[in-house]
Amino acid sequence: MENLFPIKIENYIDGKWVPSTNLKTYQRENPANPEEIVIIAPNSTEQDTNNAVEAAQAAFTEWSRTPAPKRADVLYRFAEQLHAERELIAQIITKEQGKPLNEALGEINKTISEIRFTAGEATRLDGQTLPSERQGIEIKTKRVPKGVIAAISPWNFPIVTPLRKIAPALAAGNTVVFKPASITAGTGAKIVELFERAGLPKGVLNLVIGSGREVGTPLSVHPLVKGVTFTGSTGVGSTIYRRAAEKLIPVQLEMGGKNAGVIYDYNDIKGAVDQITSAAFAATGQRCTSISRIVVQRSAVDDVVSYLKDKCAAYVIGDGMDPETTLGPVVSKDHLETIDEYVQIGVKEGARLVQGGKRIESQTNGYFFEPTVFTDVSPDMRIAKEEIFGPVLTITPVDSFEEAIQIANDVEYGLASSCFTNSMEYAEQFVNQVQTGMIHINNGTISESHVPFGGLKNSAVGAYSIGVTAKDFFTDLKVVYSASK
């Protein structure tokens, strides 16, 4: 496997693998070993972006008229290709993103499940037949594809997140221009390669690799683009939203999170901590659905801290290619420094550091950081309000369940939340009052492959992805009135 790296990749436009028009490239290092270059990718231009959009527009008419079952067949074949190459692709994910190999394989398996569900959605793009107020009139609704969709994806889940955009777009009859995160462009190129093998016609899916300024911005404002689906930071999502509003096109934005796990009146503190730990430190805390705050009944704080310290101490930190590793590096040197800065902010704010809090030195100078826990965290501290996107977990004690809900809601985000309680009354109160799009009672923040995924407040805008709600973004609705004569 080592001999395959570095992998050199290109853009994919109108069914051809091509370099950027300026012939420039950039290199992506292995975050566990920055001296190792794993990907060499094009540093594309606005011209490359325009070429890709024009190719997608040219392919739209024929693809949109392709019978839905045949579009579904392409997705099923893609899922088969992905299953056959999952071991290789998992290693590419680990090499360029850093997550342990088992986590990369888990992401791929989840992707396969979602693709298979979405393929079936191609034949479930149903409408309604409605009664008319008048004699001799029949009324029906039907769903039609929008056109060219811009799909802009992040680096933390480099295969499942792009395919939550690409697969439903294709199933509905749209064409796509795909901009992956530059950090994980190797996985993005592999996605397109598998669609090529699955028989997707030229121009239906196009890949442009490069910066937000040269690719992302021109793509989101291009006059031929009829919708933008984006996952990433709230700041970038807000900018995309403004640009789309000027064009009067829809957006599907999945953005930040500062997710709370509430523990109150619960008799299995260890079980709650086990699930919260997994939700907090999977992908080294670089998940939009990570639990990053524990809001806990004051009498249970000591037990929570004790169990958390044991769980954190059990992590094996290292290169994700090592089968013993359970916590990989963070994604970049800049991100490592950001996490370190937040830890120092927490200490200065008066929070008590009870576990971790330091970079880890290694022979390879990888971007490793200890799983970190703060307690005595007040809800107005920056570490309790801002998205750190790393292996940092805060603990805030409360004296009532009402206070717990108030603190859970006292952030700008509203993506996911968990509540661990034996009280049916508290559980119902949590469901009704907490301001998040996804709510978990007595379990962590795991989403499922056929269920809508989305959030409220500054975490999301537009239709939820996955599940039956995806078609609300990827199709337009037409209403047809027909007279009998």
Question: Any overview of this molecule?
Answer:
By secondary structure, this protein is α/β, with parallel strands linked by helices. It folds into 2 domains: 2-255 and 459-481, Aldehyde Dehydrogenase, Chain A, domain 1, CATH 3.40.605; 259-448, Aldehyde Dehydrogenase, Chain A, domain 2, CATH 3.40.309.10. Helix content is 39%, strand content 24%. It contains 15 helices and 25 strands. The protein has helices spanning 46-65, 68-84, 86-97, 101-121, 160-171, 185-197, 212-221, 234-247, 269-281, 301-313, 333-349, 382-385, 401-409, 424-433, 470-474, and strands at residues 7-8, 11-13, 16-18, 25-30, 33-42, 129-130, 137-145, 148-152, 175-179, 205-207, 225-231, 251-254, 259-263, 291-297, 352-355, 359-360, 368-369, 372-375, 392-398, 413-414, 416-420, 438-441, 456-457, 460-461, 475-483. It has a 7-stranded mixed beta sheet with strand order 15-18-19-14-13-21-22, sandwiched between helices. Strands 10-9-8-11-12-24 form a 6-stranded mixed beta sheet, with helices on both faces. β16 (359-360) and β17 form a beta hairpin. α1 (46-65) packs across α7 (212-221), α4 (101-121) runs parallel beside α5 (160-171) and α9 (269-281) packs across α10 (301-313).
